[in-house]
Amino acid sequence: MQFTFMFLANLCIPPCLLVSNTSDIVAIDYKTAAVNPVVSNLSRAVAIDVHFSLGYIFWSDVTDRDIKRFRIGGSTTTIIAGIGVCGGLAVDWRKSMLYWTDQSYDRISVSDLNGNIQGILFYSGLETPRDIALDLDNGYVLVINCKNTYPNS
């Protein structure tokens, strides 16, 4: 767990919150409300998740239509390219897997943390899957499924 502490110490003093404002990922210190940049000059970062023990930050870019990974003290790598609009992603830190929603193709996909071994987890019965969360203790994948409905004009 010492590595986890070192990872967080590089961003802010715990507890802190990592958020995206679409062009930057920032760390907000819970006690002082100080905002520290982590990754800047992004196209349009929407979804974000972290693998604390490995020091990885993952995010989806809905303009570039890909998923990127940043290692604290390292560089940014595109690990998954050519996807649709990804509004949600989740890291399984126990099995080192990455799950994401794809609103363009109405599916939930999965890969390892390097973007390899990609597969479609769900594709039936989804209409605009927006976000995703994992309950690792109970083995659940939770998805927010939003149907696009517009009033008749």
Task: Offer a concise description of the structure.
The protein has 153 residues and is mainly beta. It is 7% helix and 48% strand.
Describe what you observe in this structure.
This protein has 153 residues and is mostly beta strands. It is built from 1 helix and 13 strands. β1 and β2 (25-29) form a beta hairpin. The termini are far apart.
How is the secondary structure organized here?
Blueprint: H1 2-11, E1 16-20, E2 25-29, E3 35-39, E4 45-51, E5 56-61, E6 66-71, E7 76-81, E8 89-92, E9 97-102, E10 107-112, E11 119-122, E12 129-135, E13 140-145
Antiparallel strand pairs: 1-2, 2-3, 4-5, 5-6, 6-7, 8-9, 9-10, 10-11, 12-13
The residue fraction in helices comes out at under 10%
Instruction: Give the integer mean of the pLDDT values.
Output: 87
Please list the strands of the largest sheet in the order they lie side by side.
4-5-6-7
Distance between the termini: 57 Å
Low-pLDDT runs of 5+ residues are: 1-9
- Total number of beta strands: 13
Biggest pleated-sheet summary: 4 strands, antiparallel
Radius of gyration: 16 Å
Oligomer: single chain
Structural class estimated from helices and strands: mainly beta
Shape: globular
The total count of helices amounts to 1
Order of helices and strands: HEEEEEEEEEEEEE
The amount of beta strand, in percent, is over 45%
